[in-house]
Amino acid sequence: MAGQTVQYPSNGGTTPGYLATAQSGKGPGLIVIQEWWGLVSHIKHVCDRFAAEGFSALAPDFYHGKSTSEPDEANKLFMALQIGQAEKDLRGAATFLAQHSSTAKLGAVGFCMGGQLALFAATLNPSVGATVNYYGIHPNVKPDYTKLGGPVLGLFAEKDQFVTPKVAREVDAAIKAAGKSSEMHIYPGVDHGFFNDERSDVYDKAAASDAWRRTLAFFRQHVK
After folding, report:
1. Cα angle for residues 216, 218, 222 (degrees, 5° grid)
2. What CATH number is given to the structural domain containing 214?
């Protein structure tokens, strides 16, 4: 099952993205948010996997056509991300995805940079009722956790030098201090990016499989 490239309205302009829908035509809607590499094949494949599980998954292209496999270039794109534009892209994504969703509430899931943006999306859009954060980080994205519209599942890595277990616990505590629900798992012995099966240097099959199981169960419970 393969998705398609789409253009969706975004505050007077358009934003490209990748949409994969359930075989039934409409499933619970999920916004899937990229790592710092851009909207690469791995993220498209994640959307396809969600569609195969009965969801409708939309991955916005926050770099608007740019992507890379080089860490230095990825870091430049990551730091150059315009938060104001990202906010517009997220709002537009939620509105567009609602047309393809079988549920009034949507979910948001992101990886690395996208994990932080998923939290951000959940504070911007009342329609986002559940968030999964895979080792999310972006120094310029500051979600207001008091505005979260639903529970958060955080999935982190023990050996992560970007989002250390200490930082992960601080995020978990901050969400709870804001009066919101947060569940956190730190996978022992694995590194940042452990879910990315196209990166043999960090991918961990056991941790990725467990994280996927938790992610599906979480969204099936909370995206209604």
Report:
1. 120
2. 3.40.50.1820
